[in-house]
Amino acid sequence: QVQLVESGGGLVQPGGSLRLSCAASGSIFSINDMGWYRQAPGKQRELAATITSHDVTNYADFVKGRFTISRDSAKNTVYLQMNSLEPEDTAVYYCNAALWVHVNPEVRYFEVWGQGTLVTVSS
Hints:
The protein is mainly beta. Helices cover 0% and strands 63% of the residues. The chain has strands at 2-7, 10-12, 18-26, 28-39, 46-51, 57-59, 67-72, 77-82, 91-103, 106-113, 117-121. Strand 5 (46-51) and strand 6 (57-59) form a beta hairpin. The protein is elongated and about 55 Å long.
């Protein structure tokens, strides 16, 4: 009933920038927290940044000062602006949302993941 679709990944040189987008669609009643996670090859998935419905943000130590998370609640979309990218940032980036969904006749709480978008930082 709900889908998260990420976009904006790709190949970028060290020091470059990318902007990821994640749009939620479906029978959405409201969205609480949204966030970006990443999983590098051979490593566990880890949190990069989260943002609440009141725009309170939280960042992992490794991204502070380089990444900025934001959201457009009218569009049910969350963004991740990534600057000063390093080869160590190479990973699949996943969008996550905690949201209330119309499941007639009720509203139910779900946590949903996107399919992931690959970011490769290499010269």
